[in-house]
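Section 4.2 – Deliverable D4.2 (structural model, holo form)

The reporting period included a commitment to supply a predicted holo structure for the target in complex with nicotinamide-adenine-dinucleotide. Inputs used:
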Amino acid sequence: MPSTRLANLIDGRLQAPRDNRWLDIYEPATGAVFAHCPDSGAADVEAAALAAQQAAPAWAATPADERARLLHRLADLIEARLDEFAELESRDSGKPVALARRLDIPRAVSNLRFFAAAIMAWDSESHAMESGAINYTLRRPLGAVGCISPWNLPLYLFTWKIAPALAAGNTVVAKPSEVTPCTAALLGELSIEAGFPPGVLNIVQGRGPTTGQAIVEHPAIKAVSFTGSTRTGASIATTAAPQFKKVSLELGGKNPAIVFADADLSEQNLDTIVRSGFANQGEICLCGSRLLVQRAIYASFRERYLARVKALQVGDPHDAATDLGALVSREHFDKVMSCIAKARDEGGQVLTGGDAVSLQGRCAEGWFVAPTVIDGLANDTATNQQEIFGPVVTLIPFDDEADAVAIANGTSYGLAASLWTTDLSRAHRLGAQLEFGIVWINCWLLRDLRTPFGGSKQSGVGREGGAEALRFFTEPRNICIRY
Ligand code: NAD
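Output (structure tokens):
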């Protein structure tokens, strides 16, 4: 099959990059180039930002029900091509097709529908004063905003940003990751079919330090919603601060999953605990990469857990039996393998995995890593402090509640924790003590799109989801009337 060239979407038209530079896009399962993506420069971003700026007043004045109608239409168009999107997402990112079909693409559709509905139900506050005045709050869209997303859940996170931005009446200059640009490009094509006016949604493909940086720097871009690494988040915050741009930063994590001796370790719950470490090859910011287990059940739990992890199938993302596909890039594969080597250097004992997996046939050159479980490392080792973002889980014993909280909180990150216990009081107590933006109790990745989503400490600034996202993408104005 000949490789395809993706296009930018600028001012309602699909366009090649102005200086005709292109990036190779690889299929992680085969290691082969299958597409080319614009390596956009500042001139492309300039054109997109101006188009967004010009389209902003009319889009802000468009009634909410019309904005919602267009978002629903886009959702319908994506859903109608769900299989095609799932295939493409898998091909681009290495994840199992079945996972993209079950999780990524349906969630992208839900994101669009959710914010289409949310904007219709969104109301503003009013505050009456006994002294004879009434205040009410107007929430105005910001204008043109930037949305920058990562490679791990490409369409899922791309839509999680553009949907609230558009619903709230902003125009958008968006950039998906240059590692996984394909599904956003297809969404761009469908947005024309859906009928979005030119300039309302612009998608500029390219690399972070050039295209992404130009979006963040551009004076017409009033706010930046970013999901990605903590390092890039710091760079974006530094660029945005002198222009006083609003930023929402969803960054990395080193999440604990905490299993108490009183946990209900049914087969189903054990499966969820395994999934919480290895879903999407461990490339989910919410994955529990530090598995804290109470000492009283440590040995028996480890045995049951390992048996399950060993049963996970690493394979061709097309194969329905595959649990883990390929890691997203050669670079990321090398990073994960070096983290495993580092864990060994630190004295960690690899209980299972620890190696690359060589497959036969079309996947012989793909970037596959065996699900890896490591024991025997203290919480302050680099392995337990630094985000690996791959199929690597460390086991850490703890004695009691206080010990569990100290280990769990003993990281510079604060994104998500999961807690397994049947003691209701303990669940509430720890829910309040764990310094994470999300605490799941007896579940993992159970998402209600109305809830605040995000992290504390080095996991980010601000919250997405529900009204939080609509607030981020609007500027409040207090009107005070004396009567
Ligand atoms: P990354 O920071 O390398 O890139 C993310 C996006 O930012 C990409 O589109 C990239 O091109 C762009 N970018 C890079 N440098 C930029 C710059 N200087 N200016 C503007 N844009 C720039 O992250 P990644 O490797 O794509 O994704 C993995 C990371 O994302 C992990 O750390 C993971 O934890 C994090 N993540 C966080 C969440 C969350 O919700 N908190 C969700 C998913 C992923």
